[in-house]
Amino acid sequence: MSKVLVYIEHAHGKVPKASAVAVAAAGQVGGEIVALVLGKGIDEVATQAAALSGVTKVVAVDDDRLENYLADIYSTATLQIAEAEGADTVIAAATAIGKDFAPRVAQKMGAGMASEITAVNEDGTVVRPIYAGNVLATTKINTEKKVITVRGTAFEPAAADGSASVEKADLAADAASKMRFVNFEETKSDRPQLADAEIVVSGGRGLKSGENFTEVLEPLVDTMGAAMGASRAAVDAGFVPNDLQVGQTGKVVAPQLYVAVGISGAFQHLAGMKDSKVIVAINKDPDAPIFSVSDYGLVADLFTAVPEMVTAVEKVKSA
User: Fold this and answer.
1) Which of 35, 42, 71, 234 has the CB geometry, 3.0–4.6 Å to 239, for a possible disulfide?
2) Hey, what CATH class is 3-169 in?
3) 265-294 pLDDT, tens per residue?
4) Which of 81, 96, 317, 95 minimizes the C-alpha distance to 219?
5) What is the CATH number of domain 199-318?
6) Per-residue confidence (pLDDT) for residue 196, from 0 to 100
């Protein structure tokens, strides 16, 4: 039986939804699913990975050299375990880390690669969006070994009802990194993570300033218990940091509810949110492209509409 090695990303001792989605995609590729956890002090993460439905075994490599993510040594470790397990396919979520190290794994394996796939066909081909999601390409990887990254919104995440075994493995003694970890500056927030949130409220250039993101949009975000996002135009204008960007060159999200405030709906932004279950758009331009994908649209001045929405939501919550 063929084997699929799935890299399990983690942060603060937790496995994110994106890794559970990668496991679900591996299930459609077929074969025995081996989950790979790299890092230092990863026992709890390995236990969480073992609970993901479909995983038959977890390989945990706990080593001081893996304490902080570095693309070269992580790709070396992944290749080592892929060869040891006889895996012919390596899968990772198409996160910032997955996009960074997966091509290195492909190069080291001599494997063909497909990025950000959204479906797996019965004949083994995969589907991936191109041209900002306006075209879906059916792709065949001709090499014997394959590397795949999976869009985090494309599959239902694997359930946490499994009970796979956990095996420890040692990193090769000569494995070393030419990179040096300096520091990691994390933006901390009490709000949900953008990629995992059930509700996302995003603001665009229509908010006109960073102060309006704070004074106008944030009350709606917090009242709804949502994650905050932004369009590329708002990020480029310096209103908010780029870790909030939703779109082709930002984060791809598919929450249960997506609220777009003052966002025109350029194709770059639509590529990052059009798979949301319910889309609500607020824009004073009735011809804004965002209305072409929205389920509910309000043509209004956001500076009037958003405070009214905050009041309405608070009344519902207190009823």
Assistant:
1) 234
2) alpha beta
3) 998 899 999 989 999 999 999 999 999 999
4) 317
5) 3.40.50.1220
6) 85
